[in-house]
# Entry
Amino acid sequence: MLGNEVAVIEVDRARLEALRAGSVPFHEPDLEPLIGSGLAAGTLSFTDDYSRAIPSAEIVFMCVGTPSGAHGRPDLGFVRAAVREIARQVDGNETIVTKSTVPIGTRDWLADLLESELATPADRPAVVSNPEFLREGRAVADFLHPHRVILGSNDEMALDLVEQLYRPILEQSFPGGDGRRPALVRTDNPTAETIKYAANAFLATKISFINEISTICEAVGADVEAVALAIGMDPRIGPEFLAAGPGWGGSCFGKDIDALVSTATEHGVEAQLLQATRDVNLRQRERVVDRVRRELHGLLGRRIAVLGVAFKPGTDDVRDSPAVHVAERLREGGATVVAHDPIVRRVPELGDVEITDTVTAAVDRADAVVIMTDWPDYAGLDLAQVASVMRGDLIVDTRNQLDAEAVEAAGLRYAGTGRPAPTPRRALEL
Ligand code: UDX
# Structure
């Protein structure tokens, strides 16, 4: 799309075949049409053969996964395997760009590994750190219209080359580009690697902050929605990532905070705030379970509908999903959990928990309904219909999606996050 020829290496046979047929093995809006047009134009190809893709490449993007390993440190097994394969094929004309979220200091480790694997040490390629800030469900748009592009290296020529590659994005000069030009940050490798971790850690901390405020709001009878709106009006704070809820999840925040804490510890730094961010997040999930237990006077034998399984809307990703955590805990407490999600159909961790096709099937005979993911579908729930099929009357709206008064008007009991319950307030007004 940006005028380059791209060969993607995929070593998993099933994924490779799917990609060659233009099919994306996960839910990501806008990606399939993009792949389809690249395949049709002949500018995009997929292979599992490093010897076909690497020697003709100028730039090699390393995008392999770095899952959490021992003590929160990222497991670099996939990076190591890829570097070994790349080292066998390079001829000195390639620049390696690390997109994978790698521990701070990885460039040096990677350079040493490359050197030890190279047939001719003179062929050693330059390494540029280029962290990504893509959100799941918005990955294509975030890539094409980023706020900033971060490039880190001590090799100026390599930086120039990668900057050149990003030129259409930096200038928004591609078809569909808009007027908002992203910033370019050129720096060294460890700074670029740290920027990635610091960005995610800050966002997670912002959410944990508002979640802690939501707990205080519940205690004092204040409304966290109004608090978030008002503090977000200060440009020094900003309105985004202040939605209180059941805690953050997904494949990045938890993993990246763990990695940053472990890096800090290795260097003798105690990352107190980051540990608190993590602890508050776990507590926020547990608060949902406690709330349901308290309101239902116990979990044993209760039937609970969990609405939303994905860690956020717009994706089928359930990694570190607060919904999965809460469903597991409710089940451990002896409740029967029935879940609904617009796209998730199976969650190995939830074993025999039924994931229904319709909300009605999930809430049928439920003692409580717990909304865990802010899918827009749930904001428009037919409350009268829900009330008519439920056995109980408790609605736990962890994402503050619903109008509390409307819930009560349907004869149901409302429990949001950091919001005062409408019933006592009405009683006070009377
Ligand atoms: C995140 C970063 O946003 C992205 O820049 C980085 O590259 C990868 O990690 P993603 O994991 O796709 O992206 O999800 P994001 O939209 O950031 O949401 C993360 C979690 O925070 C979700 O569970 C979401 O529900 C929660 N969240 C987000 C809140 O609870 N409140 C908010 O205000 C915002």
Summary: Confidence is low (pLDDT under 50) at residues 425-430. The longest strand covers residues 148-152. The CA atoms of residues 221 and 262 lie 38 Å apart.
